[in-house]
Structures are given as structure tokens and as C-alpha cells.
Design a protein that fits this description.
By secondary structure, the chain is an alpha/beta fold. The chain has helices at 3-16, 46-49, 53-63, 86-100, 130-148, 164-176, 179-184, 186-203, 206-220, 223-247, 264-273, 307-322, 336-348, 382-398, 407-424, 436-439, 447-464, 480-501, 506-525, 538-562; strands at 38-41, 70-76, 79-84, 114-118, 152-156, 278-280, 283-286, 296-299, 326-332, 357-362, 365-367, 370-371, 432-434. Helix 4 (86-100) packs across helix 18 and helix 6 (164-176) crosses helix 8 (186-203).
RNA sequence: GCCCCCGUAGCUCAGUAGGAUAGAGCGUCGGUUUCCUAAACCGCAGGCCACAGGUUCGAAUCCUGUCGGGGGUACCA
């Protein structure tokens, strides 16, 4: 992937006479820049060579000579360090980026293999929570990353549109819904009565039974209940459509839980035939004691289904329908046990493709130190978050010295960018506290920081006038930051692949922050007529402009993978 | 009770298929705009990587235990 690393690995293989050893993945980055670009620790050879690591490093460094790529080989204690020819690296990476432009970093790694990505999956008749927002942003980023790597991605929104919660909602709706409030803001009114139901159910346990009865009737097709349910779905879509449009998220399929209703019997029967299910306390379960797991519940004692049943039916259906190579569920960490149980049952049922299914979990979004809970009513509304952020961006923009004709569009891009980036800048398993001040802080390492740097890159290129052309004397670029920037650009394809391998878009986020931070330093450090990017030396200027163009290209590519717009002015 | 995750700077987080001196941002303090966008940049300060053992050439990273926090654990999703 990185021809310089490949080259060094080959040299090491030759020098050690170990053609099959994996040097590629054991190369490290020396802690000091002037020690070299890559280093290799020699400890692993100490036993077989019966020699002290520093001695090995020293001998190997003399065996490997400089060549077209390698400028110098040295040893530093037990490490053998390689310094690359700087002009070759810069020349190489710039030409590659010019050739591939906005496709730099993409590949055919996936080779058309099909990946199913399930994400977002909000609940009908409830306001979309920040947790669902995180799932949506994360899933959408993964979809773009996998596609960039040549996978055939099918994104599925597994809508929470079925289950006992609808019994509760219909019950609460009949009891307390205010028709006026339902006209003004139906989702908030439904949310209000849903919370009320949970509060009253604490005192009055019969409410839960009533709710279960209503859901059972819904499952049996009661027309009146079904109509209310359908109305709820329509109301919800008005909100979802708006949010998805703002975020630029689309799905290939929106088969919700209810979609699998007529496919449940088959899977239940299959599990019965395979003698996997059994009756217990009136419910139908699959015992998993042998695997140290809690049993998976297929049916409640009243015969109605549970989400695990629907997940089983969904998985089988999707395999038949899409013949996937891999299926990824982007769902919160709270459901880890559920996925373990449900994957285990698929395995026991003989579906060996379950080994290609993966729960890609993510941490909680907490409100202060509290868990957000729709039932308890302590949640933050996605719409409010997006609106506040856009508003903040437009206030900052109003103070800008730039007069932008499309200021509204840009503040929207920046405000939304801040929210998206806040969700993608930490490892997905990390819990995050929702903090208004932080999420609306556009200073420091944030989405707007990246977008701002991109705008500045564009601004320089605009002032240069004339299109950058690949031919330039890159050897003229002799500032240390210029070489470091080129080195970082070289790493981009590897970072994209890593992000997919770990299902961690933050790998790209962290990379972009580092790249852009380095550029900002470079940009502000060199201001003299000769050293600045738009240098008064034409030849030097051509090379600097080209490097700038390459950085802009990579930043633009990374931002679009994450789902942020990259405005050219802001 | 059992299972899973987490504990790194005042705060929020990186660094964990073991590698050379543990890094950012925010916050504090102090600098930088007749100069390619100051939503920026530079500098100062800030650490017993929860604690105790172990594994080995080497541990923030792997193992065991303790303490602390969170989540899950049969008719919610």
C-alpha cells in the first residue's frame, strides 16, 4: 500500500535472509524526526541470531545500503532506522494525488463484496434521540468508507416500529392525548404522554398488562389499533425525513421491525424443528445455558413476539435477499448481550454465515452524568441540537470579514459539521457526555476547525490564480514541515483502510486533525516573500502550490467520508 | 449474585495484535493581525497511566487480584 514501507521490508527480508517474515507490520515510527522515517526493532532476532539487539541493528544497518528510495540507514541502540529520500517521497505522493485526485485513498480492497450496514433505526412515535443520532452519523460514515474501498454496501434502517412500546403508546394516546397539541407538535405530545405512562405505571402495574394486550391485538391485526399505529408512522416520517435530509443520510432499505412480521413463523418453526426452543414459564425460549448466556425469548406468554424474534427473522431474510458477505449492526453497547444471544441462536440453527455478522457497538451519550432515557423524559432533541448549532455558526459568520452571498448555506454546513464531527472524533466505544457548551464550541479541534482549514487551503489556491499542474520541481521543497506534510499524505490510504478494518471513522478524524494542524503551523510560520506558499520565486511557488493542492484534496476527501461539507469560503 | 465495558494532565479525550523520552484539544497565564482567511498560530505550566502483584529484553498496552464508576442480566428495544 505504501511503496516505501514495502521497499524497506524487502530490504530487511534480504538482509536478514528471512523472506517470509512480516517486516511491513512491525515497522515503527522513530520518536525523533532526525532519526529517520521508519525504524525496525531487532529484539525478535536476538534469540535465533544469538546476538545482542544493538549489535544486530548495527550489523544490519551496514548490510543495507542507500538506494533510490533510501537515503540513509543507521542504528540507534536496538533499532535500525531508515531515512527516505525526501524529494522522492514528496514527488511520489504529489504525483499520485494529482493522478487520482478526489479518489486518492480509495481502492478495490472490497472487490465488490456486499456489506449490509444496519444503522440509525430510530423508534416510531418518539423524538429521535441523541443516541440514535450517533448511530446515524456513525453508520453513514461507515457506509461511505466501505464504498470508498470498493464494497457494495446496502444500508438498512431497521425502524423500531413494532413491539410492546406501541401498546403503551396507543394506550397513552387514548387516555391522555391532547388533540390540540397533537396538531401542533405530535411527536412532542406523544413523547409527553409516553413519559406519563411510565410514571403512572410505577404505581399502577395493570397499565403494563393493558399495553401488552393492545400490542397483542395489533399483532393480530386489529384494524382500529392498526390505523392509529399507521398514523404514528406517518407523523414520525415527517420528523425523520427532515433530520435525514439535514444530515444528508440515505438508506437503501427502510424495512422496519414490522416488515418481518409475516416471516416470524418460519424461523420459530425452524427452531422448534431443530429442538432448540422450549417452553418455560409460559414463554417460548431458546435456552443457552451451555454457552453461559441467558435464554433468548422468542415469544411472550401471550404469544406475541419480541425484538429478538424479529431480529432472527430479519437476519435470515436479509441473507436470502442480499446474499451478503458481511453484515454489520451499528447499535449501542447496551445491546451486547442481545447480539451474543441472537448470533448464538443463528449458529445453533446451522446458519454458518452468522460468523460474518458483527455488532459494531458504540458508547452512551450521557446528559451530565445521567443516562438519557426516553422513558424518564430526560433527553435532548436532535432537532434542537442541530438548530442551535446552525444558529451559532451563523452568529460567528456574521462577524467574519467575508461577505458571503450564500452565508445561510455555509452556516448550516458548519453547524451540522460541528455536530457530525463531535460524534466521530472519539473512539466509538467511548461514552460521551452531552454538553451544550462543548458541542457548540467551534474553537480548537472541531468540525469547523477542519472546515476552516479547508477554506483557507482553497483561498490560497484561489489567490494563486491558474490551475496547479502536476509538473513541478518538488526537490525545491526543503522546509521540514513540507516534508512532514508529504509524509502524512502518504499515510492517508492506510488510514482509510484502518477505519474500515476497525469500523472506526475516528481514525480518519484524528488523521485529519493532525494533518490540518500541521498545515496551520506551516501556513502561519512562513510568511516571508520567498517562503510563503505564494512565493515570489515562480518555480518554488509551483511546487508549494502543488503540495497545497494535494493537502486540500486529502482534507476534502476525508471530510466527505465523514459526512462533513467542505466549504471553499467561510 | 453472574456477565460485559471503563479508570491516562484541572476538564474532554488519543495512545492498547507490547517497542525508543506517554500526546492533543479545552481551561489558566503570556505572546502573534500594516503579512496567502485570527473559527488560526506560538510559548509556559500541568502525569506514581486507579492500586498491588505477575509474564519478558521491554508493559499505559497482556494475565491475576483489589478498589472505584457504568451497563446488561425472561416476557421493553
Amino acid at each position: 500500500m505504501n511503496r516505501f514501507k514495502e521497499h524497506i521490508s524487502r530490504q530487511l527480508a534480504k538482509a536478514t535472509s528471512l523472506p517470509n517474515a512480516d517486516f511491513m507490520n512491525t515497522l515503527v515510527i522513530p520518536p525523533k524526526d532526525d532519526w529517520g522515517d521508519y525504524g525496525w526493532p531487532c529484539f525478535s532476532l536476538a534469540k535465533t541470531m544469538r546476538m545482542a539487539p544493538p549489535k544486530i541493528a548495527s550489523e544490519l544497518s551496514q548490510k543495507i545500503t542507500s538506494d533510490d528510495y533510501i537515503e540513509n540507514v543507521s542504528s540507534e541502540g536496538p533499532y535500525i532506522n531508515f531515512t527516505l529520500r525526501k524529494n522522492v517521497v514528496i514527488d511520489d505522493v504529489c504525483r499520485k494525488i494529482f493522478a487520482e485526485a478526489e479518489n486518492y485513498g480509495s481502492s478495490d480492497l472490497g472487490n465488490g463484496r456486499r456489506v449490509i450496514l444496519e444503522y440509525s433505526s430510530p423508534n416510531i412515535a418518539k423524538p429521535m434521540s441523541i443516541g440514535h443520532l450517533r448511530a446515524t452519523i456513525l453508520g453513514a460514515a461507515l457506509k461511505r468508507i466501505y464504498e470508498y474501498l470498493g464494497y457494495d454496501v446496502v444500508s438498512i434502517n431497521h425502524l423500531g416500529d413494532w413491539g410492546t412500546q406501541f401498546g403503551k403508546l396507543v394506550l397513552a394516546y387514548r387516555k391522555w392525548a391532547d388533540p390540540e397539541a397533537m396538531k401542533i407538535d405530535p411527536i412532542k405530545e406523544l413523547f409527553r404522554i409516553y413519559v406519563q405512562l411510565h410514571e403512572e405505571a410505577e404505581q399502577d402495574k395493570t397499565l403494563e398488562d393493558e399495553a401488552r394486550t393492545i400490542f397483542r391485538k395489533l399483532e393480530q391485526g386489529d384494524p382500529e389499533i392498526k390505523k392509529i399505529w399507521n398514523d404514528f408512522i406517518d407523523l414520525s416520517w415527517k420528523e425523520f425525513d427532515r433530520i435525514y435530509a439535514i444530515l444528508g443520510v440515505k438508506f437503501d432499505s427502510v424495512a422496519g421491525e414490522s416488515f418481518y412480521q409475516d416471516k416470524i413463523d418460519d424461523i420459530v418453526k425452524l427452531l422448534e424443528d431443530k429442538k432448540l426452543s422450549t417452553e418455560s414459564q409460559g414463554a417460548l425460549i431458546v435456552p443457552l445455558d451451555d454457552y453461559k448466556l441467558e435464554p433468548l425469548l422468542l415469544k411472550k406468554k401471550d404469544g406475541s413476539t419480541l425484538y429478538a424474534t424479529r431480529d432472527l427473522a430479519a437476519a435470515v431474510y436479509r441473507h436470502d435477499e442480499y446474499d451478503f458477505d458481511k453484515m454489520i449492526y451499528v447499535v449501542g453497547v447496551a445491546q451486547s448481550l442481545h447480539f451474543k444471544q441472537f448470533f448464538k441462536v443463528l449458529e445453533l440453527a446451522g446458519f454458518d454465515w452468522v460468523k460474518n455478522c458483527q455488532h459494531v457497538d458504540f458508547g452512551w451519550v450521557k446528559l451530565g452524568s445521567e443516562m438519557m432515557s426516553t422513558r424518564k423524559g430526560n433527553i435532548v432533541f436532535v432537532q434542537d441540537v442541530l438548530d442551535s448549532s446552525i444558529d451559532k455558526a451563523s452568529r460567528i459568520m456574521a462577524e467574519s470579514k467575508f461577505e458571503l452571498e450564500n452565508a445561510e448555506e455555509i452556516s448550516s454546513q458548519v453547524g451540522i459539521g460541528a455536530i457530525i464531527f463531535a460524534n466521530l472524533s472519539v473512539k466509538r466505544q467511548t461514552d460521551v457526555s452531552f454538553d451544550w457548551e462543548k458541542i457548540l464550541d467551534f474553537n480548537g479541534y472541531s468540525g469547523p476547525y477542519l472546515q476552516y482549514a479547508h477554506a483557507r487551503l482553497c483561498s490560497v489556491l484561489r489567490k494563486h490564480k491558474g490551475e496547479p499542474h502536476v509538473e513541478a520541481d518538488y526537490g525545491l521543497l526543503d522546509l521540514p514541515e513540507e516534508y512532514k506534510l508529504a509524509r502524512m499524505l502518504l499515510d492517508y490510504p492506510e488510514k482509510v483502510a484502518d477505519a474500515a478494518a476497525h469500523n472506526e471513522p475516528y481514525i480518519i478524524s484524528a488523521y485529519l486533525l493532525e494533518l490540518v494542524g500541521l498545515f496551520s503551523t506551516y501556513y502561519q510560520k512562513y510568511k516571508s516573500a520567498r517562503d510563503k506558499i505564494l512565493s515570489d520565486d515562480d518555480k518554488l511557488r509551483a511546487a508549494k502550490v502543488n503540495l497545497t493542492y494535494c493537502i486540500k484534496t486529502v482534507v476534502g476527501s476525508g471530510l466527505s467520508l465523514l459526512g462533513l461539507k467542505a466549504p471553499e469560503k467561510m
